[in-house]
Structures are given as structure tokens and as C-alpha cells.
Design brief:
The complex is a heterodimer. By secondary structure, chain A is α+β, with helices and mostly antiparallel strands. Chain A has three domains: about 190 residues, Aldehyde oxidase/xanthine dehydrogenase, molybdopterin binding domain (Aldehyde Oxidoreductase, domain 4), CATH 3.30.365.10; about 150 residues, Aldehyde Oxidoreductase, domain 4, CATH 3.30.365.10; about 325 residues, Aldehyde oxidase/xanthine dehydrogenase, molybdopterin binding domain (Aldehyde Oxidoreductase, domain 4). Chain A contains 19 helices and 29 strands. In chain A, the strands form eight sheets. Chain A has a seven-stranded mixed β-sheet with strand order 12-13-10-20-17-18-19. A five-stranded mixed β-sheet of chain A has the order 15-23-22-21-16, with helices on both faces. In chain A, a hairpin with a 4-residue loop joins strand 7 and strand 8. In chain A, helix 2 runs parallel beside helix 5. The termini of chain A are far apart. Chain B is globular, with a radius of gyration of 15 Å. Helix content of chain B is about 35%, strand content about 10%. Chain B has five helices and five strands, in the order E-E-H-E-E-E-H-H-H-H. In chain B, the strands form two sheets. Chain B has a three-stranded antiparallel β-sheet, with helices on one face. By secondary structure, chain B is of the alpha+beta class. Chain B folds into two domains: about 70 residues, Ubiquitin-like (UB roll); about 70 residues, Orthogonal Bundle (DNA polymerase, domain 1). The termini of chain B are far apart. Classes of the chains: A alpha+beta, B alpha+beta. Chains A and B meet through helix 8 and helix 18 of A and helix 1, helix 2, helix 3, helix 4 and helix 5 of B. Chain B: This is (2Fe-2S)-binding protein. Chain B: Keywords: 2Fe-2S, Iron, Iron-sulfur, Metal-binding, Oxidoreductase. Chain B: GO terms for molecular function: 2 iron, 2 sulfur cluster binding; metal ion binding; oxidoreductase activity. Chain A: This is Xanthine dehydrogenase family protein molybdopterin-binding subunit.
């Protein structure tokens, strides 16, 4: 059954791929489930060919990159997909986020949600991926996350460019009275060489829009790519070196008011007593209104300027209710540690027979360890904000957000206007890291817009609100055992990982009436699905119910389990007296892509060289979001503390669309992971978050940043993600280097609990 | 009160206690300097006052003495400031939100030290936080800007 299914599927693809000059694909137009949203918003003289391309008769070409540009460079890469096939250079086009639309569904985001290992290409795994992809399409899930945008857009957006080009060429052929195959395109111009005549895309755009879209298109061979596979200047770079007003916080509308929120610092409670009279009387304050949502309860302060709103919010006299969770941080963390030791577990990976393998293990061959990581805030540079206007039955939302369809859905509902009367304008984002996949900032702005008689209102959170309100990266604890064999390699590994169910938390504040039980694969992501072969290998999930809101944070479960898994693997290597890199080579023998990455990063970093006293290296590897990433970091003991000298990264992304952007994301992801590992934690006292701003929730500074060297490899036959992949191995590489340097095994993050950094 | 911002004289009607940042953004509509923390801990709001970098989020507008320069005032009709050009050449920015502040601090650094070492850069730029981790490229861009500036002078 399995073999037959696989064979049939491949045969179809091979049959389709034998057309000369490229791969013929059934153009999605005839299968598209949703209308083109651009048809509703065309300017005079402008036409649209599909949801990704608009051409104006004045030769303005607008491409839609419908994923959130939050720094990762996705607008450049997605635009390049369309531009490559449309045959225009990136400096000729305008790139926009576009409107919210089901047409911009992200199929790839759900595809890997089936819980199969990335390398599993069995019929069942592929079938589930296909079904999940269809589900993403049918749900119209326009979402940015899971490092999926490039993989999701690769076929669809190139097809969109190719189809538009065919229509433009056909229109030119009719105009010039020649056959389409006599025409060539050159950067936005259609040329008939034989007669030395040419027409621009703009000149034929109106005609082209009348032409029936092609039923299939032929995509370029990789060898013919002009833009893809090569580093492109980012389309957003000029704006980002000139201070252009492109962010949510820069939205300005006529007659706009400014506002902020003060939401309960105790999760899930409302004020028990409050007095807003003094705050309401402060200069510049327009109105203070109560806020009650599933995200949180508190107050919205509307004022003439942001500073007046901040001051008044601080001046509200309020007492909040008691938390429905332990008040002290130690108690909270103890629930995870206890659960990891003895809670009810479900095995998410279960190779061999772990219980039997441990039953007769000699005591001296067994190692055991407990790990934990804290809650974390996202702390993007641009604090949460959103601007809204509710006027004449139309709701306009200007939101730096990762989920435009959900923003439209929830905000229109809250404002009592139909979805069709709700316009969501997605701005550039000053960082997001998962945080802007939540909806609270948009809900609060909508609620306040109902109070301003049609005036737009911009709601900006203070950094303190942004740091303290969550939802956070989940805290987690792990209890690990390994039996070491005579050859020093692990015979059995048992990993028990305890955390909150993130999906339940998310559903509780968005769709509370829907059941959200079951397993949460993110609890074990980065531990259960790593390319190691160990005869007895079990990774179990233990759910801890707790009312602290948790959510996606760059690399999600991998950010936790990369540290757990790779820290413990380093311990196993040490106990078995095997070099950590050599141990990986042996345990990963079944996975050539992994081995190639390990070898590459070992070679780059000259792993195994004798270092001067006071210096050491650490290694870690994580396969996440379909990309295989190995990192080595070198550190040095200095009088001021531990200094991070250099990090080497090797990553196999399958296919590298834009090497410069990939390299930037690898260092970015690693610095994000190192920042958290070195010093970040969200802790609680009296049920309230203790940290508030960058003085006590800081991130890596330039003087702490190591040098980087990145190698991009294209071995594996499927494309992987990029935006989050650099994060998971960073923390364990550093912790393992600290062990090599000091002999101190740190199993609890942040590392600053036990060592100091220069 | 009257302020000189980016070479222009502007009248600002605000509480003198209001931080310069909010006077610029919410009253004068100058949006280049960004709000990041409100406590001078991240540098996103950095502007120059008589050439020195200042965190505008904590400086009361009533206490401003001297000419204010924001990111919007450093390029000339002839083109980008060498620091901006170097940022463009090195493709420094990711989300870009902190970069106006980074660039302003770098502009001030290069006025003081024409050809800074990595250590000079680390010392000068430590107050400017970047959550995307563009630091290696910031270092490279400041070196490049130094060369560009020396070549232009």
C-alpha cells in the first residue's frame, strides 16, 4: 500500500516534469478557492492578474508579499519569486503586504503540524502533509510563522509571475500582430527583435487583463534564474536607513488621538477596586475606559498625546484580583520539575524498549539530569501598538501583525461591523518573534476606537506593559536519563519534558468555546524529532495546566528542547568519554544531511584543535523547520567574565533562495538564542511579573556579540525554513562551551544564574 | 517653545516636562526617532543635540538647549549621509526599528573618532539595543562609513 502510493505520486510528478525548458505546472488559477482581493482596490489605470501582481498603465508594477515583514527579509524573497518569472528586476517593483485575504493562505504552516519527522517521506507522512496543506488552504490561514513563508510561496508565487508574464506577452503579440513566441521580455519590456519594436508592461496591461489566464505555465529552470539563488538588495533597506515612517507606531491619520492601556498584571483577573478620577483629570487626558477581553482586563487611556496617556495610565489607582496560579516563581517552576519527574507522560517518540533497557542497567552506566528554562518575553524593539478608526460603519485597523485575516475577523466582530467593512492595513514590524501573532493590541485599539466618535486612535503600549503582559515563551522542565554502552555511546535515552499546552492557552483567549485538548507537539519539538539513531529512545510529553498565558516565540518548542536535548547529549558524550562531535557523527550515521552539517561546522571551527588555557568551544545541533543547523561557539575567560569570541554556523536549507538573507537570519537567530541563554528570564513574585523594561530584561549588546562565520549548504532534497533555525542550537552550544571551559554543567537558564558575561 | 530641528525652527506647544521624543513624534510629526523603552535603555530614540547623542525619551523638551538633529536631517540633497550609505551597502537593517538610533550614534562616533577600532565601536554603540542581532553588520558598516567619509573629505 505504502509503496504503491509513493510510486503513483512520483510517477505523476515525473510525467509532469519532462517538458523541455522547465517544469510545467497546472496554474493555480483554475483551482484557486478564493477571489483575488486586489480587484477591490485598483487605482485608475491599474489592473491585476492574480493576488500577487498589479500593473499600472504608467508602468508601476506592484507585487504583493503577503507575509509579515518583521525583519526577516521575507518581502524581498517573496517579491523575487514573482519578479523572477515576471522578468523584472527588484528595483523596478513596489512591494506591499497587501490586504488580508483567504487567497493568501499559508499551506506550509500546517503541513508540518502533523507531527511527523521532517525526514519521514512515507506515504502516511506525505498524505497527512497534503491533507494539512489543503486544510490550510481551506481555512484561508494567512499567517506568518513556523519559518514557512519561502517554502509556501516558492511554487505559487513563481507561477503567479509566470502567468502574468504570459498574459502581458499575449497582449503585446496581438498589438504588434506577431506570434507570442517571437517576443522576448527584458525587465518590464516586451521586445520584438525582428522588427525592433517594443512595448512596456504598462502599455499592454489593460489589454492583458482581458486575456484568459493560461491553464498551465512553464517555470524557469534553476540554471536560468536571474534573481533567485543570488543575494538581492533588500527592498526595504532604503526606508530602514532613512528613518522612514513605515512602522505601526508611525501611522498618522488626520485628527488622530493617542492612547495606551493598563492591563491587569495578574493573569485572568479584573480590577477588584479602582479609582480613575485623578488620572482622568490629568492634562491632555480625553477619556479613560474599562477594557475587558479574554486577553486581559484593565483600562484604556485616551489622550491628546502618547506621553499624557502614559502618565495617566500610571496614575490610575487600582487593586487587582488574586491569581489562580502559584504566586511565587519557585512554586511555579516546581510544578514543572515535579511533573517532569513523576507526571503522567505520553511518549511522542518511542524507539526500542526504554524500560527494559534501563531495568538491567548497571548504576555506574546510567546518568540522570534535570533541566529547566524560564518563561520569556519577546521584547521586539517596537512595543505593541495598533491604530484604529471606526467611522460611518467602517473599521480601519493599522496593525503590525502576523495574522491579518484573524485581526479582521476578531476586530470586525468586536466593533459590530461586517468583515467586508473592516480594512486591515499591515504595516512593517519593528520585530515580532511570534508576539504579533496574538490579537490583543488590535482588540484594544478596536475597543478604544468605539469611544472616540469616529476619530482615529493610536494605542501604544509602554515597554513595561509589553514586557509584563505575555503571552510568554512557555517555561519548561525536563527529566532525562541515559544508559551509556561499553563503546561510550548511549544505549538508551529517556526524556520527559513538562510544559503547558500552548495551543490550549491560545485557544482559551481566542476560541474559548472550542475544545483544545490533546497533545501539544511543541512541548517536545526539538527533542523528539532529531536525527539521531539510539536503540532505545523515548521522548515524552507531560502537560502542566497553568493559567499563565503562553505562545509562539521564535523557534517555539525548539528553543526549549534544543537546549535540553543538546545539553544532555553533551553530558552523554562526556560520560561516555567520546568527543561530542565524534559522538554525533556516529549517532547521526543514518542521516547524511546531518553528518555533512556536523562535518562542515567542525572543519570551519577547527574542532579538536588545542586551545590556549582559558578558552573553550561548545557544539550543538538542531534540525528545526526543515533545516539542519550545527553551531560551534568559542568562549574565553576574561577578568570581566566570559567573553563570546566567535560562532561558526553550518546550515543545510535544501535550497538557498537568497544567501545574504539566510546568513543574516542565521546570525540573527543565534544572537536571539544567545541573548535568552545569557540573561533573559520572566519570573514572578506575588503572581506578578518581576521584570519590566530593558534594564532588567536585556538582550545581547554589541560589545557582547561574537564574530560569526556562516556556511550555507544545499544537500537535502527538500527546502527548509530560515527565520527561526539559528536560535535552537545557540543556547546549548554556549552552555556546552561553558562546561568545557569551567567544568560547570549549567542545566537551568539563564546562564547568568551561575556565571557572568563580559 | 521654539526648537531647532533638522535645521528648521519649529514652534512646539507642549508641557515642558514632556520628553523630547514625544514632542517630536506626537506634536511636531517627526517620526524618525522611535520609542523603544522610555528609560534611556535601548537607544531607539537617539537624536543629536549640538552633535552629541542624546536619548530623547527621557529629556524634557523644556530643557532642550541647542540644535536637534534627527535621522531625517542627516542626508543632504547630494545624497545619503556616509553612515546611511554604508548601512545600505552593508545591508545592515533587518526589522529596522532600532536603526535610526544606531545610525545617529554612529554619526556622532565618527565625528569624534574618524577611524574607530572595533573596541571604539563597541564602547560607543553599547547603549543601542538591536533585537534582530545586526551587530556584526553594524561594526562592518561603521568601518565602511569611516572610509567613505575620509574619501569624501
Amino acid at each position: 500500500m505504502s509503496r504503491l502510493g509513493t510510486f503513483t505520486r512520483r510517477a505523476f510528478l515525473l510525467g509532469a516534469a519532462t517538458v523541455a525548458g522547465g517544469v510545467a505546472v497546472g496554474y493555480w488559477y483554475y483551482r484557486q478557492p478564493y477571489p483575488n482581493p486586489l480587484e477591490d482596490e485598483l487605482a485608475e489605470g491599474e489592473v491585476t492578474f492574480n493576488p500577487y501582481v498589479k500593473v499600472s498603465s504608467d508602468d508601476t508594477i506592484t507585487l504583493i508579499a503577503p507575509r509579515a515583514e518583521m525583519g526577516q527579509g521575507i518581502s524581498t524573497t517573496l517579491a523575487a519569486f514573482v519578479a523572477e518569472e515576471l522578468d523584472v528586476s527588484l528595483d523596478r517593483v513596489t512591494v506591499e503586504h497587501g490586504p488580508p485575504s483567504y487567497a493568501y493562505y499559508n499551506a506550509a504552516m500546517l503541513e508540518e503540524g502533523g507531527g511527523f519527522n521532517f525526514w519521514d517521506e512515507s506515504f502516511t507522512a506525505e498524505t497527512v502533509r497534503g491533507l494539512m496543506g489543503v486544510a490550510g488552504k481551506m481555512l484561508g490561514l494567512q499567517a506568518t510563522g513556523g519559518s514557512t513563508a519561502t517554502r509556501d510561496g516558492f511554487e505559487r508565487m513563481r507561477q503567479a509571475g509566470a502567468a502574468a508574464r504570459i498574459m502581458l506577452v499575449d497582449a503585446a503579440a496581438a498589438r504588434l500582430g506577431v506570434a507570442a513566441n517571437e517576443l522576448a521580455t527584458e525587465n518590464g519590456t516586451i521586445v520584438h527583435r525582428a522588427s525592433n519594436r517594443s512595448l512596456t508592461y504598462g502599455e499592454v496591461a489593460l489589454d492583458a487583463a482581458q486575456i484568459k489566464p493560461p491553464s498551465s505555465v512553464v517555470l524557469k529552470e534553476r540554471a536560468d534564474w536571474k534573481l533567485l539563488g543570488k543575494s538581492q538588495p533588500r527592498v526595504d533597506m532604503l526606508d530602514k536607513v532613512t528613518g522612514a515612517p513605515i512602522f505601526g507606531i508611525d501611522v498618522r491619520q488626520p485628527d488622530m488621538l493617542f492612547a495606551t492601556v493598563r492591563i491587569s498584571p495578574v493573569f485572568g483577573v479584573a480590577p477588584v477596586r479602582s479609582d480613575i478620577s485623578a488620572a482622568s483629570a490629568m492634562p491632555g487626558v480625553v477619556k479613560i475606559v474599562p477594557i475587558e477581553t479574554l486577553y486581559g482586563s484593565g483600562f484604556g487611556v485616551i489622550a491628546e498625546n502618547t506621553w499624557a496617556a502614559f502618565k495617566a495610565a500610571e496614575a490610575i489607582d487600582v487593586e487587582w484580583g488574586e491569581p489562580g496560579y502559584p504566586k511565587a516563581n519557585d512554586e511555579i517552576m516546581a510544578t514543572f520539575t515535579q511533573a517532569a519527574r513523576s507526571g503522567d507522560a505520553s511518549a511522542m517518540r518511542d524507539d526500542g524498549n526504554v524500560d527494559v533497557a534501563f531495568a538491567d542497567a548497571p548504576q555506574e552506566r546510567v546518568i540522570e539530569a534535570e533541566y529547566s528554562v524560564p518563561y520569556l518575553a519577546h521584547a521586539p524593539m517596537e512595543p505593541m501598538n495598533c491604530t484604529a478608526r471606526l467611522k460611518d460603519g467602517v473599521l480601519d485597523i493599522w496593525a503590525p501583525n502576523q495574522m491579518p485575516v484573524l485581526v479582521r475577523w476578531f476586530c470586525s466582530d468586536l466593533a459590530g461591523v461586517p468583515g467586508g467593512k473592516t480594512n486591515v492595513h499591515t504595516t512593517s514590524m519593528g520585530g515580532a518573534f511570534g508576539r504579533r501573532g496574538e490579537l490583543d493590541y488590535a482588540l484594544y485599539a478596536t475597543l478604544l476606537a468605539k469611544e472616540t466618535d469616529g476619530r482615529p486612535v493610536q494605542v501604544t503600549w509602554t515597554r513595561e506593559e509589553d514586557t509584563r503582559r505575555g503571552p510568554f515563551r512557555p517555561a519548561s522542565a525536563g527529566h532525562f536519563r541515559a544508559r551509556i554502552g561499553e563503546d561510550g555511546l548511549p544505549v538508551a535515552v529517556d526524556m520527559r519534558i513538562a510544559a503547558q499546552n500552548m495551543m490550549s492557552s491560545l485557544m482559551g483567549r481566542t476560541f474559548p468555546s472550542l475544545p483544545a485538548g490533546g497533545s501539544d507537539p511543541s512541548i517536545t519539538d526539538g527533542a523528539r524529532n532529531q536525527p539521531y539513531t539510539i536503540p532505545n529512545y523515548r521522548v515524552s510529553e507531560i502537560q502542566v495546566p497553568l493559567a499563565i498565558p503562553v505562545t509562539f516565540w521564535r523557534s517555539v518548542g525548539n528553543s526549549v528542547n534544543g537546549f535540553f536535548h543538546e545539553g544532555f547529549m553533551d553530558e552523554i558524550a562526556h560520560a561516555g568519554q567520546v568527543d561530542p562531535v565524534e559522538m554525533r557523527r556516529r549517532l547521526m550515521a543514518d542521516f547524511p544531511a546531518a553528518i555533512a552539517v556536523v562535518d562542515k561546522v567542525a572543519e570551519m571551527s577547527n574542532w579538536g584543535e588545542t586551545l590556549p588555557a582559558g578558552k573553550a568551544k561548545g557544539f550543538a545541533f538542531t534540525l528545526s523547520f526543515g533545516s539542519w543547523c550545527g553551531q560551534v561557539i568559542q568562549i574565553a575567560e576574561t577578568p570581566a567574565g566570559i567573553k563570546l569570541e566567535k560562532m561558526w554556523i553550518a546550515v543545510d536549507v535544501g535550497m538557498a533562495i537568497d544567501p545574504a538573507i539566510i546568513e543574516a537570519q542565521m546570525t540573527s537567530g543565534a544572537i536571539f538564542g544567545l541573548s535568552a541563554a545569557m540573561g533573559q528570564q520572566i519570573t514572578f513574585s506575588e503572581g506578578v511579573v518581576e521584570q519590566s523594561n530593558f534594564h532588567d530584561y536585556d538582550a545581547m549588546r554589541i560589545f557582547q556579540a561574537p564574530e560569526f562565520e556562516v556556511a550555507i549548504i544545499e544537500n537535502f532534497h527538500r527546502m527548509g525554513g530560515v527565520g527561526e533555525v539559528g536560535t535552537p542550537p545557540a543556547a546549548p552550544a554556549l552552555a556546552n562551551a561553558i562546561f568545557a571551559l569551567t567544568g560547570k554543567r549549567i542545566r537551568q537558564l539563564p546562564l547568568s544564574r551561575e556565571v557572568s558575561f563580559a | 517653545m521654539n526648537l531647532t530641528v533638522d535645521g528648521k525652527s519649529i514652534e512646539i506647544d507642549a508641557d515642558p516636562e514632556m520628553p523630547l521624543l514625544w514632542a517630536l513624534r506626537d506634536i511636531a510629526g517627526i517620526l524618525g526617532p522611535k520609542f523603544g523603552c522610555g528609560i534611556a535603555a535601548c537607544g531607539a530614540c537617539t537624536v543629536l543635540i549640538d552633535g552629541s547623542p542624546v536619548r530623547s525619551c527621557v529629556l524634557p523638551v523644556g530643557q532642550v538647549e541647542g540644535a536637534v538633529t534627527t535621522i531625517e536631517g542627516i542626508s543632504s540633497p547630494a545624497g545619503l549621509h556616509p553612515v546611511q550609505q554604508a548601512w545600505l551597502d552593508e545591508q545592515v537593517s533587518q526589522c529596522g526599528y532600532c536603526q535610526a538610533g544606531q545610525i545617529m550614534t554612529a554619526v556622532a562616533l565618527l565625528e569624534e573618532i574618524a577611524d574607530p577600532t572595533d573596541e571604539d565601536i563597541d564602547n560607543a554603540m553599547g547603549g543601542n539595543l538591536c533585537r534582530c542581532g545586526t551587530y556584526p553588520k553594524i561594526r562592518a558598516a561603521i568601518h565602511r562609513a569611516a572610509s567613505l567619509k575620509l574619501a569624501r573629505s
